[in-house]
Amino acid sequence: MTFSLIIPTLNAENHFSALIDAIQKQTLQPCEIIIIDSSSTDSTCIMAKNHNLHIEKIERDAFDHGGTRTYAAMMAKGDILLFLTQDALPTDIYAFERIIGGFHDQTGAVYGRQLPYADASLFGTHLRLFNYSESSYVRTYHDKQYYGIKTAFLSNSFCAYKRSALASIGYFKDHLILGEDMVAGALLLQAGYSLAYQSNASVYHSHNYSIWQEFQRYFDIGVLHRNESWILEDFGKPEGEGLKYVLSEWRFLISNHKTFLIPYSILRNIAKYIGYKLGKIHLLFPITIIKYMSMHKRWWDKL
């Protein structure tokens, strides 16, 4: 079973050397590496050429979270399509071998564990620990009664798809503000495939978002859930999961002797909640206000 490695890039020079070095050390190597570059203005493309990588350049305004990955997927040769983001770094030499090893007959996709970078804040660290547990598991469509919307969780920062399964759902949906991975996960589950989480296949990947950035990100998630309302109708609403996350974050702060950060945590989570709710009613606002509240501002120019 062959696999293709696909990496979308934009001005990735700060990450690229370490990433390529980590890829070349993997015990299981892809049959090809496809770089989809959104017209970088730094040395990303030069660095890729120096490593003899396949580079496909697109206009920056043409980038689409789903459409661009579909474009790469359809040109790839592998039976498995492994997606990485430019800021995700394999933690050891077995990451690819272990994530590919997670496929079985009915598996549509396998995603790996994401661990925080050394410079991650406590909030960034907790997010990774909450979303990516130490235990592997497999989810099917029928698990939605227990896990709700989390049943469809995937992350294209480090995720592999069976090519035939992805093709059966029409690859990734075009023109999503974000969340092309979760939408694909939901469609794969509806089509009868299972989703696997392989905890022993891991990458470093984390962000230190400010309160305002958290607001903007959750505004965009609200937009996604408004536009793709079928996911919530089928798998359930995320509110209960949000409460579990907040309580978990407080316990994490207390265990790390940072109880004084709980008021800051409250502000962060209020910002997320308000952002999400405003995103779900974004049609009530003028486009200038919408773009101000959104993290992915370029997306709105395509409407």
**N-to-C order of helices and strands:** EHEHEHEEHEHEHEHHEHHHHHH
Which homologous superfamily in CATH is the superfamily of the largest domain? Spore Coat Polysaccharide Biosynthesis Protein SpsA, Chain A
Number of strands: 9
SS element count, helices: 14
Secondary structure: helix percent: 40-55%
Query: What overall form do the CA principal axes indicate?
Result: globular
Strand content: 15-25%
- Class by SSE composition: alpha/beta
User: For this structure, what is the CATH class of the largest domain?
Assistant: Alpha Beta
What are its keywords?
9-stranded mixed β-sheet; Spore Coat Polysaccharide Biosynthesis Protein SpsA, Chain A; 2 domains; alpha/beta; single chain; 303 residues
Brief overview:
The chain is built from 14 helices and 9 strands.
What does this structure look like?
The chain is of the alpha/beta class. The protein has 2 domains: 202 residues, Spore Coat Polysaccharide Biosynthesis Protein SpsA, Chain A, CATH 3.90.550.10; 90 residues, no CATH class. The protein contains 14 helices and 9 strands. Strands 1, 2, 3, 4, 5, 6, 7, 8 and 9 form a 9-stranded mixed beta sheet that branches. β2, α2 and β3 form a beta-alpha-beta unit. α5 packs across α11 and α11 runs antiparallel to α12.
